[in-house]
Write a structure and sequence with these properties.
Elements lengths: L1 E6 L5 E4 L2 H10 L3 E4 L6 E5 L3 E8 L6 E6 L4 H12 L2 H5 L10 H17 L6 E9 L5 E2 L1 H8 L6 E9 L3 H13 L7 H13 L26 H12 L1 E7 L2 E9 H17 L5 E4 L4 E2 L7 E2 L3 E4 L5 E8 L10 H14 L3 E7 L6 E5 L4 E8 L5 H15 L7 E2 L12
Helix pairs in contact: 2-4, 2-8, 2-9, 4-7, 4-8, 6-7, 6-8, 9-11
């Protein structure tokens, strides 16, 4: 089996590939794939914002495994996932994933440990709304269904009741994530064995339907407190891209994680936690923000911080990567300008994973609005990274920031990772 190594957002790599494999990769859109115009029989591959591993199989040809490594160390990426899932992960200690240098094995290992802790005191039980046709009356009779299906007959009876057991949203999420991981090639054998054991403990739980995008909804509370870290990781796993593509005998399968979403979730949760000490409340993916007076053009800033009086005090958006080598994308500035205008705020904040630019700020002409562009170095230890987030929150709350006002052309900088 041939293995192709790519770096996230790295330069295009020219790789000798059978034509069928190259065409399968291009069709799957896992990476940017195109024939190399200068090297016959080679394809130019370039990864985007997803990391993980996939395998491509074409009848009569050796399979090819594509591994896409993140820019940041796997342990740091796992910290971002864990902190966004539950900020207490940082205080309670990280799962040891130093033995893994790939995303999927580390994620599977961390999830298995979280499930083990969740089920240590037994499988959680609860009430689940149930509707069924029954020979006896239990709960309440669904009168409309009874008349529609059994008009003129006393039995059977269409009933609805709350059933107490293990088939609840929390356990469905855990079982769904376990079953998503088990068939993947890159899951370590010892982790796979323990995941099978956990699946056996959830035997009475209904599996999730394949292809359904809406995950079971659950509400955090005292009863499911021990489940919550595992549930957040389960949602991350289930929302990842499980690649299953096949056409004309070609198969592409594997698992990828969207690093853009991981970074945005981490920044928003970390800012929310840091802003809590300043009072007010922070709304993630804020609703109710409109650009026009008639409220026809809706906008969804990543984070809006409201003061104790209920009015907006600050707005922030997280951006994983600067797309232009010469600096931050101008489109992000226009988007933030619209947010600030609609919310009536003098300052807006864009938070990037550090690439080509240091933190800067721009004073918008004739508008009285300043847009701050903050750059986070994700390769720093968790404590330092959270301290950077706290400094941004301090600036959002009205403190003095470190970013200098930039009015001239942006100077290109070497990327820092």
């Amino acid at each position: 089996m041939t293995t192709v190594e790519l770096g996230e957002h790295g330069a295009a790599v020219s790789v000798p590939l059978p034509d069928g494999i190259g065409r399968a990769l291009a069709a799957s859109r896992i990476v940017e794939a195109a024939p190399d115009p200068y090297l016959p029989g080679a394809w130019r591959l370039r990864a985007g914002g997803k990391v993980g591993a996939v395998s491509v199989r074409v009848p009569g040809q050796d399979p090819v495994t594509l591994r896409i490594a993140p820019k940041v160390p796997v342990r740091r990426l796992f910290f971002l996932i864990g902190y966004a899932a539950d900020p207490r992960v940082h205080r309670d200690g990280e799962v040891d994933v130093t033995e893994h240098d790939e995303v999927l094995p580390a994620l599977a290992h961390g999830f298995e440990r979280a499930v083990e802790r969740a089920l240590r005191q037994g499988v959680l039980q609860g009430y689940r709304p149930t509707e069924e046709t029954s020979p006896v009356v239990r709960g309440r009779i669904r009168e409309a269904d009874q008349v529609k299906r059994h008009h003129g007959r006393a039995f059977p009876v269409e009933i609805a009741y709350d059933d107490y057991g293990t088939d609840i949203p929390e356990n469905r999420l855990l079982k769904g994530a376990v079953e998503r991981l088990l068939p993947l090639d890159r899951v370590p054998d010892d982790v796979r064995r323990r995941l099978r054991h956990h699946r056996g403990r959830l035997l009475d739980v209904q599996p999730l339907k394949r292809g359904v995008r809406d995950l079971p909804r659950w509400r955090a509370g005292r009863l499911n407190h021990r489940y919550q870290p595992a549930l957040r990781l389960a949602e991350t796993i289930l929302r990842g891209s499980s690649v299953e593509h096949g056409a004309g005998g070609v198969s592409v399968d594997g698992y990828l994680i969207d690093t853009h979403k991981i970074f945005e979730d981490f920044v928003c949760v970390a800012l929310r936690e840091a802003l809590a000490r300043h009072g007010g409340r922070a709304a993630l993916q804020a609703r109710g923000v409109h650009l026009d007076e008639d409220r026809n053009v809706a906008m969804r800033p990543d984070l809006v911080w409201y003061g104790d009086d209920g009015g907006p005090r600050a707005v922030a958006d997280a951006k994983y990567k600067a797309e232009k080598p010469e600096g931050f994308p101008d489109a992000d500035l226009y988007q933030m300008l619209a947010y600030c205008t609609a919310l009536g705020l003098p300052d807006g904040h864009l938070v990037y994973a550090r690439g080509y630019e240091p933190s800067v700020a721009h004073q918008v002409r004739n508008a009285g609005i300043r847009i701050h562009q903050h750059a986070l170095a994700l390769d720093r230890p968790p404590g330092e990274l959270l301290a950077e987030i706290a400094a941004i929150a301090h600036t959002m709350a009205g403190g003095t920031g470190d970013a200098s006002v930039r009015r001239g052309p942006q100077a290109a900088r070497e990327p820092r990772w």
